[in-house]
Sequence to fold (122 residues):
Amino acid sequence: MTKQLKSALILSFGLLALGAGTGCISHTETSYTEPERAKISFATEKAGRVFYEALQRTPDSRRRTEKHTGVNLILIDLEHRTVTGPNAIFNKAVAFADSDRNGEITETEAEIFSRAWTRDDD
Ligand SMILES: [Ca+2]
Fold:
């Protein structure tokens, strides 16, 4: 073992011991985003009611989206969370329901959306 390698190992163990003894530097930052709500109309009152009732029954796993990014070094732990607001789930639901992308949800589209969207299996 060369003298330089020995020095590097001693320095590494020293840093590890310092980190274990004093704790790591940890920083978590959270930012919130709220996209603009999608514009949509409903062909009938029933289409709107079916759509909104299905949206209300949205499983918890779909209500909020979070994205984590992190960097974890020996003594430094940095994390950034991005939390997306409720408009994101509304926009996702509209994109799912308005299958022909004409900006209007029909009763048929709302019924299909209602059956598919409220399953909690994905
Ligand atoms: Ca449509």
